[in-house]
Amino acid sequence: MTIGLDDVVAAETALSHVDGEAGRLIIAGHDLEELAGRVSFEDVTAMLWEGLVPHAASDPKALLSEARQRAYRYLAPLSPRLAGLTPVEGMRLLLASLPDADEDHPSLAVGAAGIAAAMAVRGAQGLAPVAPDSLLGHAEDTLRMMRDAPVSGDEAKGLDTYLVTVIDHGLNASTFTARVVASTQAGILSSVVAGLCALKGPLHGGAPGPVLDMLDDIGTVDNAEAWLDDAIARGERLMGFGHRIYKVRDPRADVLKTAVGRLKGKSNRIAFAEAVEATALKVLERRKPGRRLDTNVEFYTAVLLDALGVPRDGFTPLFAAGRAAGWVAHAIEQTRTGRIIRPQSRYVGAWPAQAA
Ligand code: ACO
């Protein structure tokens, strides 16, 4: 029996495949590198939803744009309730309030995830929500609504690349959670809320700041080698390095690094982060020989979202905004099996005393 389900195959999926040994992520039949930064979030969503959501491919940009408008009508009145909540708590509140009675759950869930991420970040700062713009793409509009400021082409491309990069990733904890809820026939919106609840934990998507905290602590390029060396000598982990499944480079780190490169003029932290990465790889090679430790998705996610002006506590909501499209696809795929996910546990508690 495997405790924790490591190595257990719990579902068959045509959505994505993670090959950790080869450093490969396949999404809807394509390598991530063919999609991120090349195909829009809306179009990759349509590719994932093909055969699962009727008409998803006919005009995906219009579908999500219309869904943002509809979601805003449901969610904007809830803005006063966001005061005092962190952005991820606010996003949970907003998504949980969507009505099962809405006629189009798949697109509503994804449109609402963009609206909720933007609203929840603003709400945590005591700011009023910004309405969606039907002419913009999903990434550009989400960032514009979050910042209430125009978004440049490179910035829109940066967030679009990020949303595609995180759209799906095998049977990770939140996707599995979404499938378990879907398997009870609870519905797509409940599956997406459940996915967010699993994602918000610090062991999954809920620890947004550590990479930036590390960069802040290191402070200067000259200090990097000594800082990193001392941290490893103390037995600490370098944030944004290593991965349980990818035993070579995390392909998501590569595509995000390319997106970050386009934003160099926006943030001094980018060149600094690149210098720290190069030094860290040298230090890890020396201190942990043969471990194959490399940059993971968290490293360039932090640098990219920071350069886009997203506050640290907004990183997890944006992760959820991208992953929502994957959760929806998995929920439908699972629902179609008609089978509830119901594993076993091994009882290790006390047994009732034998009757005399
Ligand atoms: N910095 C320094 N050493 C590391 C790091 C790191 N980031 N990651 C692993 N190691 C070392 C371990 O100390 C260990 O060395 P040892 O054999 O001398 O004891 C060896 O590499 C193997 O460590 P494991 O814990 O077996 O590696 P595992 O694959 O289980 O860990 C994990 C993966 C948890 C991601 C780890 O690399 C880590 O803690 N990284 C830092 C935190 C981080 O970046 N998290 C985000 C991951 S991306 C994501 O989850 C979406």
Automatic annotation (TrEMBL):
Keywords: Acyltransferase, Transferase. Pfam families: Citrate_synt (PF00285). The active site is at residues 243, 298. InterPro entries: Citrate_synth-like_lrg_a-sub, Citrate_synth-like_sm_a-sub, Citrate_synthase, Citrate_synthase_AS, Citrate_synthase_bac-typ, Citrate_synthase_sf. One of its GO terms (molecular function) is citrate synthase activity. GO terms for biological process: carbohydrate metabolic process; tricarboxylic acid cycle. It catalyses: oxaloacetate + acetyl-CoA + H2O = citrate + CoA + H(+). Gene3D superfamilies: Citrate Synthase, domain 1, Cytochrome P450-Terp, domain 2. GO terms for cellular component: cytosol. PANTHER family: CITRATE SYNTHASE, CITRATE SYNTHASE 2-RELATED. Belongs to the citrate synthase family. This is Citrate synthase. It comes from Microvirga lupini.
